[in-house]
Design brief:
mainly alpha; about 0% strand
Length: about 110
C-alpha cells in the first residue's frame, strides 16, 4: 500500500512526485497549441459564457446600481446568510426593502 503523502519525509515526497517535475510531453493540453478550428470554437464558447453571465432576469422595471453605507457587522451578517443560502447580497437587501415598505405603507400592486 502506498504511503500517505502527509506522512512522507521530504526525500520520500520528492521521490514520489518527481514525475511532476518534468514538462508535459503527452497528448492534449497542456503544451499543445489549439488548432484554428479549436480556437474558433473556444472563442465562440467564451463569448456565449460572457454574454450569459452579463444577462440577468429583469424584475419589474429593471435594476439600478446604488451606493449605500451599511454598518460592517450588519453587512457581515447579510453576507454570511447570503452565502449559506445561495443568495446574493443584493437580493437580501431588496427583500429587506420590500418587507419594510410593505409593513410601512402596504404592498405594492404587482408589476408585469
Amino acid at each position: 500500500m502506498k504511503k500517505d503523502y502527509s506522512r512522507m519525509t521530504l526525500e520520500e515526497l520528492r521521490e514520489a512526485t518527481k514525475e511532476f517535475d518534468q514538462p508535459w510531453r503527452g497528448p492534449g493540453l497542456p503544451g499543445e497549441p489549439l488548432t484554428a478550428a479549436e480556437r474558433r470554437t473556444f472563442k465562440a464558447w467564451q463569448a456565449r459564457a460572457l454574454a450569459a453571465r452579463k444577462e440577468r432576469k429583469r424584475h419589474g422595471y429593471g435594476a439600478r446600481r446604488v451606493q449605500v453605507s451599511i454598518e460592517r457587522s450588519l453587512l457581515a451578517r447579510i453576507d454570511t446568510y447570503a452565502r449559506y443560502h445561495g443568495m446574493t447580497r443584493a437580493s437580501i437587501l431588496a427583500m429587506g426593502g420590500e418587507l419594510f415598505l410593505n409593513a410601512a405603507v402596504g404592498p405594492q400592486p404587482s408589476r408585469a
